[in-house]
Amino acid sequence: MRNFDLTPLYRSSIGFDRLANILDNVTRTDGSGNGYPPYNIEKTGEDAYRITIAVAGFAEDELSIEARDGQLVITGKKKEDDSERTFLHRGIANRAFEKRFQLADHVRATDATIELGMLHVDLIREIPEALKPRKIEIATSRPIEAKKVSKK
Question: In this structure, is residue 137 part of a structural domain?
Answer without folding.
Answer: no
